[in-house]
Amino acid sequence: MAGEVSVSEETKSLISMLVKEANLSGAAHIKYYTGSELGDGYSSERLAVDIVDDDKQLKLYLKCAIPLTPERICINTMYRHEIDFYKVIYPTYVKFFEEKGIQDGFRNVPKTYGFCEKKFREIIAFENLKAKGFRLFDTKKYMNDSELKLVLRTFAKFHAISFGIKDQRRELHDSFCNDHPCHYEVLKPIGLENFFAKGARDFVAKLDPVEDRNIIEKFSNLEANLLSTFFNLEGQLSSYSILTKFDCWINNMMVLYKDENTEDPLDIMLVDWQCITRASPVHDIGALFYAVASKEVINNYRYYLKVYYDELSRRIRELGSNPEILYPFSILEKEWKIYGTYSIGLAIVLLRGMLAEKEDLTDNVESSDALDSFFSGSVASEKKWLVRAKHIARHAIEHNLI
């Protein structure tokens, strides 16, 4: 584990409160460590905290807002959204399915212990999933069949509750959505627009004018189309939209495996709920699917759509609603194409970061130097990126997704 670090007064105050709530003595020994590697977090400081008091031990993980400049005020909005999810939305979802007598509903969210809601100094204290054996997916590998099915079924459980509440408690669902509007527009000041524009532009620029002529023809407007999709989301939604996580970065999931020497997953936790908003289920699973799937899996994408939909429909029925009315499979297929530019374009851009070496990554996408570094990594990782990205592009062309 990394060495100890100094912490803010807000962090010390929150930990002091949690020590009291856990009935630990004032003499409890507290250690703070760096909580994540470079590139795993976004505009946040991550701290691991070990609290030891005689035979009692509490292992926490803190997500702390980085002090903001005026240009980055949107991060405050994101923290408010995330805190609201953990304090209000998620407990409401759990209560909803528990009232139906469902024991194995959506519980794939880490336990929270407390919050600091001071503006620009927000902190969320979680259970330390890493200490419980959870770990990040290996971003340089394809997800295997078991991993991918677990991810899709987990999102299906979450989406089913959104559909169920929308159907049975419409005002509540709409209030959640209205309180968490899409905020990609306010993310422009921190460089998100430049990040995606640079990624799309870089992909097209690296294509071979002869070998990849068809891709160049179809993807020549990828940059403009991807940005339009991002920053005009609300105008593109249908009556089937629900409250979604809307953050498909692979490092926003942690998985528990059967043992350290296997890739047989037992459980998964979805973290970082700062982007929750009204959108299509496809916005949660589309780009993620293409970014983590092998060529063979992508070619068999309809099978995995059925895996997702079978779980979704079963869970919606379990909640007492009708999936054929709320979200027919035909609509899922239709929206898979409607939001194809989002899924395909975002997957290609994010895949670059997934395959990059650690030294190429940064937690700050604001500067042009950081962008240039991110999209000009090692030759080996770039070759892998282009091979995978070009297969995604050819698939998109074949199935009219772009």
Automatic annotation (TrEMBL):
Listed Pfam families: EcKL (PF02958)
InterPro entries xref list: CHK_kinase-like, EcKL, Kinase-like_dom_sf
Domain CHK kinase-like: 124-318
Keywords, sorted A to Z: Transferase
Keyword Heme: no
UniProt key word Transferase: yes
A GO molecular-function descriptor: transferase activity
Protein name: Phosphotransferase
Source organism (scientific name): Oryctes borbonicus
